[in-house]
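Hi there. Long-time user, first ticket. I'm pasting a complex I've been working with (about 446 residues overall). I'd like to know whether the download I got is complete or cut off, because the file seemed smaller than I expected. Thanks.
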Amino acid sequence: MLGFAIGVPFAILRVYGGRLSRFLVDIYVWVYRSIPLIVLLFLYYWGIFPIIFGVKLSAMATSILALGTRDGAYQSMIFRAALESIDPGQMLAARSLGMGKWEAVRRIILPQALRIAIPGWTNQYAIMLKDSSICFALGVLEILTRTRYVTISIGSYFIPYLVAGLLFIALTYGGTKVFNIIYEKVQIPGLIGGK
Amino acid sequence: MSNGNVILKVENLKKSYNNKVVLDGVTLQVEKGITKVILGPSGVGKSTLLKCINLLTTPDSGKIWLEGIELTDPDVDINKMRQRIGFVFQEFNLFNHLTVLKNVMIGPVKVKKIPEEEAYKIAAKALERVHISKELWNKYPAQISGGEKQRVAIARALAMQPSIILYDEPTSALDPSLVGEVLQVIKELSDAGMTSLIVTHELHFALEVANELLFMYGGKIVEQGPPEELISNPKHEIVKKYFASIYTRGR
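Hi, the file is complete. Here it is re-exported in full:
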């Protein structure tokens, strides 16, 4: 959700904003795409928040922020591709009716781009879900952490990790299924090649 | 033609792209109820001229007035003024996520803030005028033919109740068999008194619909006058050549 909240506005700024906003979004994306997630987590947990902002965040909050801010970078590029796939004529036609630039983005461009971006987001969801297992490193009680507790208490690895794997499969399946249903539901004839 | 009747006035409009002069001082005016057609070979700035008129492209210099208000004045609210200038694109540019009816209604409802029921009536009337039957109103742009799309685009412009409609090669992207229905609609509107400025390569249509022809070449209007005059007695060599080439092509 945080990724979405960052990704969509950043993509709009990247495509329709001025030179400065384009530059800033590019820097943001460059930084967050470069840093490995585990480095980002540790940086947030022991560096940026306690030292620079002076707040000690819980492992859970840090994980959400790290995953979200990083996901925002990836999502902004998914959504940028969707925005740029829309014929510039759509914008021209909206402006020719007397709509302002941002009104045209909101009424004409966004409803088309959001639909087009859904498959990309489905993919990103699946990636994110599994990346969340890295938060194990901070001791967040996610699937992998719990699995480890189980392996310790029963002294066997195979079954618990098999269960964890199956759980990830189920979550990915369920989530992508939901995305696909939404994708079909909001489909408009002819909006996306031949459908 | 008296000045009080002038809808659109363009004075000494200039535009260059990367040092290439596209418009080299265009001056023209269109009076109320009059249809003028701009002819000329490809690449002489006809489309650029139209896009400059409603400032979809920003001209480098020159002035434009719509009904006495200067559009090129930086203090003018261009979004407000564009509501009064209908624009029909070569590639239709219908909004792909909206039905035919919604395409025509979005201008009145969202831009002019007209109540939904009234906007529906305006849209219905506009669609009738371009002969789009009711079965098509709930279709999406991808589900109708090119000729239908362009007629819906004309209805979308009409529904704003503009002072003038600019047509930018409205049939160039159409299959030849669909050209006629679109030209027919433009002619009907023009005959009914819709002030129009049309860029087209359809010479026969131009002769039929225009009160005046403007011939553009090298970024300028080189010759203008009533169709019969321009075609029977062109003064410029380039205009003669253009008509000759079109006739030898058998059009």
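A couple of notes from our side: Helices of chain A lie at 2-16, 19-34, 37-53, 59-84, 88-96, 101-131, 143-154, 158-185. Chain A has a mean pLDDT of 83.
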